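Consider the tokenized backbone below.
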């Protein structure tokens, strides 16, 4: 019986079992810098350097270091552990989209932020507000490399309104935003907001629940993005270009609303059926059970009737207080979630679909602890 699980167990039980999402939490938590990140051919997985234990083991782990497993939001009983740490209890089966205090629709009141955002620009407005009101020092977000024409998403640190504006909107390839953490620390930032899909926004809770050092304390605010899947970067050449003649630089904006919507730089518009894109689903998403970013302070999505509003799930006191301050100061406008019951029903449906992906070979399905012994 291993009571100090380390990289050896993480490699076997998560990295090579299909559960690994590529969130990079283990990499940023490792104090010995023996973990790297492989993005070749759509891999998006951590690897252990050749020295110091080789790919399957770790000499520091053999000596008692367990930080990578303590940071991993897919290791063993991660879901009830993070639920308990974040909310003081485990979600019920009824709470299929995670523990929530409220669901609202929100929109940035600043027209520039609203226009830059993917949906209502709520995330952009929140980041600008939190930076300008000294709630955070910086945010870990996703940027596009270079001038954006390659559509390659890369982790980035945003500290100013201009940087928030430049990094808003959605990319549908993976960006392990946690990898921007070392750059933020190097610049002396202590209070960070992590923006990311559920796979990433469960990481601070996992680190906190398992006392994995000071990273969890620094990641003091988490904003989740609802997510069914991300696509392999090869989709640009192998589908958009091969079938539709669309090179990366001709795409101005993209969204997914039942279909892949592509707005083109020449003013054109194209819809690609989602079933054509399924073959490029990223490996790390295939067994992910979390649609609604269940452990974030606030989770955000674009489903529903109102394209220019963001659906926001309020989960924690921190999220609720920040939202209340933003409303008070006029940074966002709100509508009740009940204005769009279809959006909430769809969120629950998509959450159920994702939860069915959790494999029977892993620990008991997330949220389903074994029945107590009578
Ligand atoms: C890969 C992906 C899949 C999604 N799937 C769904 C879905 O199925 N249903 C749904 O309702 N909503 C989905 N969303 C969320 C939705 O697209 C919006 O991000 C959300 O509604 C917030 O909108 P906004 O206008 O408030 O955000 P914005 O103000 O536009 O801010 C968006 C933030 O997301 C960050 N970001 C953008 N792309 C990525 C990326 N690839 N990885 C990490 N961070 C990123 C940006 O840096 C920015 O900080 C998805 C988002 C992503 C990134
Ligand atoms: S899920 Fe994240 S923390 Fe766990 S092994 Fe994969 S990259 Fe590391
Ligand atoms: S489906 Fe979304 S939340 Fe799940 S692993 Fe993929 S990118 Fe992360």
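A designed sequence for it:
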């Amino acid at each position: 019986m291993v009571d100090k699980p380390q990289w050896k167990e993480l490699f076997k039980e998560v990295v090579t079992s299909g559960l690994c999402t590529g969130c990079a939490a283990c990499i940023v938590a490792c104090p010995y810098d023996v973990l790297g990140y492989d993005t070749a051919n759509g891999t998006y997985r951590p690897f252990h350097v050749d020295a110091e234990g080789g790919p399957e083991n770790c000499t520091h782990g053999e000596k008692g270091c367990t930080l990578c497993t303590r940071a991993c939001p897919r290791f063993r009983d991660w879901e009830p552990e993070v639920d308990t740490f974040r909310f003081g209890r485990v979600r019920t089966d009824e709470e299929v989209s995670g523990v929530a205090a409220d669901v609202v629709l929100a929109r940035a009141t600043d027209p520039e932020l609203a226009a830059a955002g993917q949906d209502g620009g709520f995330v952009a407005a929140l980041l600008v507000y939190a930076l300008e009101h000294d709630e955070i020092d910086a945010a870990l977000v996703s940027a596009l490399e270079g001038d954006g024409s390659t559509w390659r998403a890369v982790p980035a640190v945003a500290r100013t309104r201009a940087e928030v504006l430049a990094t808003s909107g959605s990319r549908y390839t993976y960006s392990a935003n946690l990898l921007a953490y070392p750059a933020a620390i190097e610049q002396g930032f202590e209070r960070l907001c992590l923006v990311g899909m559920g796979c990433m926004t469960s990481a601070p809770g996992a680190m906190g629940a398992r006392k994995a050092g000071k990273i969890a304390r620094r990641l003091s605010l988490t904003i989740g993005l609802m997510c069914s899947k991300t696509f392999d970067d090869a989709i640009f050449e192998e589908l958009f270009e091969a079938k539709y003649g669309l090179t990366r630089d001709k795409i101005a904006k993209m969204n997914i609303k039942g279909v892949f919507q592509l707005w083109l730089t020449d003013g054109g518009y194209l819809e690609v059926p989602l079933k054509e894109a399924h073959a490029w689903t990223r490996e790390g998403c295939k067994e992910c059970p979390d649609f609604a970013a269940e452990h974030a302070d606030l989770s955000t999505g674009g489903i529903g009737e109102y394209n220019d509003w963001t659906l926001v799930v309020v989960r924690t006191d921190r999220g609720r207080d920040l939202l209340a301050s933003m409303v008070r100061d006029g940074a966002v406008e709100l509508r009740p979630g009940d204005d769009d019951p279809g959006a909430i029903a769809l969120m629950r449906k998509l959450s159920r679909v994702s939860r069915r992906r959790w494999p029977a070979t892993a620990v008991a399905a997330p949220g389903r602890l074994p029945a107590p012994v009578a």
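Residues 341-355 form the longest helix (15 residues).
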